[in-house]
Amino acid sequence: MAQIALVFAVRDVTESVTTLGVVVAARSLANLVFLLWGGVVADRLPRQLVLVGSSAVSAGSQGLLAVLVLTGTVSVPAFVVLAAVNGMSSAFSFPASSALAPQTVPAEQRQRANALLRLGQNSSMIAGASLGGMLIAFTGPGWGLAADALSFVLAGLCFSFVRVPAAGVAAGRRPGVLSELRVGWTEFVSRTWIWGVVVAFVFVNAAHAGGTMVLGPVMADTVIGREAWGFVLAAQTVGMVAGAFVALRIKVRRLLLLGVACVAAFAGLPLALAVYPEPWLLMITAFVAGLCLEQFGVAWETSLQHHVPEDRLARVYSYDMLGSIAAVPLAQLVVGPLSQLAGITATLLGCAAIHVIATAAMVGSRSVRAVENVPSAQPVH
């Protein structure tokens, strides 16, 4: 709900695509700056406590933004600052939540646990995307932001019931932050398949953030309508739910190879937006992209949890996220000027091509093809 509400709240203040890119880039940039520290904190402290704190900060920032939008007092600087606060909070929640699952289930159940976890997340996103589109259409984006703030309050309450110990060593024996970051970096670079996939996702996420998530709403305003765009995003989350059910039943030895091959489907939505932006086709391509996204997501998380030591997992996740979204702020900033120079259609076609090329690079990697879906105490190079 929040991403739809934020985009259209900004567009109600200014129609500038470049300004929209600046706002969403502020969130991404703050996320980048704090991600590594978030990984260290999540490996030092009980991860559920990190998630409670992150939820509280997110609820506050989104709640304040909702009030400003609803009262008509919001400005572009306010959008930028509060988006940055929300991005900072997310930098702490992502490594903590990602590393929490293997502390609650045995190794042989991790693939199913990850699929069930993503099923729950994506099921809630279906209602959020649909409700977000309707709220924007009938009441305005401010109420979507308010509902998002409430959801963070509820999330923090739920996380407070989780009871797992801190994964790190005792406080008196902990090394410094820089030393812990070096240990996490060593784990990250020692496995070629990890950094290889992350490098590919530098381009995949940049193409998605700049193309689909910035130019998609622009196309909605000019071609298909805001309500239809909400249903397109809802179709993607329906596909993600379906994909989670598929991932629950898949039993293949080279799960990661299957996952990265599915990334090619991400090209469908920008391609349809560029060539034939009809709502029914956009919903189909979004559904397929969501289904395939889940195959990659479950495969990736399960592979990391199988092959990275638990007490270093949050730091590896933070390096993973940092690398994966490194180019996102730049993409969000330049997509406006680029689309004005080359045209929206050409820019969307370029984004689709990036998804296909990145998929080919991952599938072609011998290291990726060698990763097996079995727990291992030894590094996999």
UniProtKB/TrEMBL annotation:
Record key words, sorted: Cell membrane, Membrane, Transmembrane, Transmembrane helix
Cell compartment(s), UniProt: Cell membrane
Keyword Membrane in record: yes
TM helices/strands, residue ranges: 20-42, 122-143, 149-172, 193-216, 228-248, 255-276, 282-304, 316-335, 341-363
Membrane-topology annotation of the record: Multi-pass membrane protein
Keyword Cell membrane: yes
Protein name in the entry: MFS transporter
